[in-house]
Amino acid sequence: MQTRNALLSITMLLSIVVNCKRILIITPAPLHSHQLVFRPLWQALHKRGHELVLITIPINATLSNYTEIDFSFLKVTLHNEEFMSQHLSNSIWQVEKITLDLMNMINRETFEHPQVRQLYAPESNEKFDLVIVDVMLGPALCSFAYRFHAPLIGITSTEVYQYIRYLLGDLLLPSYPSNWEFDRNAGFNLPFWQRMTNYLEMLAYIYRWTYIYMPQQQEIARKYLSANAGDLFDTIGNMSLLFLGRSFTFTYIKPKVPNIIYFDSLHVTKKPSPLPKNLKQFLDGATEGFVYMSLGSTINSSCLPKEKLSVVVQAFTKLPYKILWKFEKEKPPRIPDNVFIMKWIPQQEVLAHPNIKVFVYQGGVQSTEEAIHFAVPLVGIPLMYDQGYTINRLFEKGVARRLNYNNLSDTDLVNAIRDVFNDKQYKENMIRLSDLIKDKPVDDIEKLVWWIEHVMRYNGVPYMRYNGADQPFYERYDTNIIAFLAIAIFMIIMILLFVLTECLYFIIRNRMLIYTTYKPGFHNMSVKEKTS
User: Fold this and answer.
1) b or e along 91-112 (b: 16 or more beta carbons within 10 Å of the residue's beta carbon)?
2) Is 229 in contact with 147 (CB distance < 8 Å)?
3) Where does the signal sequence lie (predicted)?
4) DSSP letters along 42-103, please?
5) Mean pLDDT of 149-170
6) 0.70 cut: is pTM over it?
7) Does residue 209 lie in a domain region?
8) Domain that residue 360 falls in
């Protein structure tokens, strides 16, 4: 019996060793909220026996078979007031350019890091069975998959650039609110001219990515990897899987290709930790309920312009509730006594507190998932990226109020907070949404781990690829057929009009000839009489 158990144990250990794979993970974004999402997945892969090499912010440096290349130095670049003000004051297209310039910078920093150089150097013998890339940081990083001849999986903690979806063959629908990058014209039942505007903007968007941004990314990849860079259009178009940090419960539903897989709430804790003593005392004392405000980890409240800070402070002065505010610098002037300020707040523990009534936030996906999990109604002030897109959907579901940042006034903020605080319907709708997001047939981490190992077992999943991704835009959307039919119908109509015109002209001319030929006394008239 003992011998059999020993053999079984040895067999299980050998199976783990045999199935152990080496994975390169590239997520250098120095954003705490985004890295927080990925950590449970990396830890699950490590527990499965896989060796991980991560380009990221250090979190588990002491683990064996777990190498981390530190990219926390990029925080200085992202968390400065100039970067914030650019995103808050420019148009959506200017923000797109700023974001993509930042993406190029992060990619160059990644390739130039000494430890990363050692990985891809021509003389390097490094081998990987899979490459996982945060695709929101730029297509150039996907060229590592080509360099190491490994399958590629894209991942993002939020929505992805719609052009990445486009390269995978996914639909871009300008007449439907499915594109977060066209947030200002999103909505159902749009009038014709607004849908026309969206369509033209979509064409311009595809043009910019195809002929401006992608060539820039290709140039970066070739600068560092030379012939080992591959063609980025092919590399991304042949991506095995794309993991998107989105839930169907709070996003707009749209058709998708099968190799795009959704997940959500990986980082949400099942058992919140105890609150700090001073914070717990403040929240426990808010027996009538309290309001919590945080703008996330990318945009800090302290980076808001003075006039916007003044609006928030004036609004808080007019509210009778206790307010917890995440403010990253010294306490701003004229803060009322009902406001408790902290530079860092354990957000999930606060959202789990029974006295919370309203969460005022910027619309970030991770904060949204946490609020839904703990059933906390929302007041959203979207600032950048897909935040407006998210809050629009939450507003439609009756769990949030949306405010416009550019036109924000203290009266609007006060009215929105009072409405959500006092109207029980918001809470009831959020409880239902919370039940929906928790009701799953399988844990998302288990699902993603299975797909990752499936890709490695078969060295890719080409059977899940949509062949229509190879078609140019005009073929994929049948615009060439529509144009041909439109021109053909136009030509037929023009020919018919020409024939009809000629027939009418022939009939009228013949009638005039008959009239002039047989009119009595016409030939007996003098020239002067005929012309008079």
Assistant:
1) eeeebbeebbebbbebbeebbe
2) yes
3) 1-20
4) HHHHHHTT-EEEEEE--S-TTSTTEEEEE-GGGHHHHTSHHHHHHHHHS-HHHHHHHHHHHH
5) 92
6) yes
7) yes
8) 277-438
pLDDT value of residue 386: 80
Tell me what pLDDT residue 99 has. 79
Mean pLDDT of 367-375: 96
Kindly state whether residues 505 and 450 are assigned to the same domain: no
Residues 35 and 167 in one domain: yes
Q: What is the CATH number of the domain that holds 330?
A: 3.40.50.2000
Distance CA 49, CA 34 (A): 24
Note the pLDDT tens digit of each residue in 311-336.
999 999 999 999 999 988 777 778 88
Whether 125 and 164 map to the same domain: the answer is: yes
- Reply yes or no on whether the pLDDT at 32 is more than 90: no
- Number of separate helices (H) and strands (E) present in the chain: 22, 13
Number of domains in the chain: 3
Six-digit token pair at 410? Answer: 């203290």
What confidence score (pLDDT) does residue 529 get?
52
Q: Is residue 11 part of a domain?
A: no
H or E segment to which residue 131 belongs? strand 130-134
- Does 136 fall in a domain? yes
Contact yes or no for 116/136 (Cβ under 8 A): no
**Is the pLDDT assigned to residue 108 strictly greater than 60?**
yes
* Backbone angle region of 398, left / alpha / beta, with phi > 0 → left and psi within -120 to 50 → alpha: left
What is the pLDDT at residue 271?
87
Residues 109 and 199 in one domain: yes
Look up residue 258 and give its two tokens.
């099968």
The residues with which 325 forms a beta bridge, in sequence order, are 293, 341
Same structural domain for residues 71 and 220?
yes
Length of the chain: 532
User: Measured between alpha carbons, how far is 131 from 22 in angstroms, rounded to an integer?
Assistant: 9
423: in domain: yes
pLDDT per position as a tens digit, 64-74: 788 888 888 77
67: Cβ–Cβ under 8 A, 6 or more apart, which residues? 52, 53, 54
Residues 73 and 31 in one domain: yes
Whether 70 and 198 share a structural domain: yes
**pLDDT at residue 49 is higher than 60:** yes
Task: Check: CB of residue 447 under 8 Å from CB of residue 263.
Answer: yes
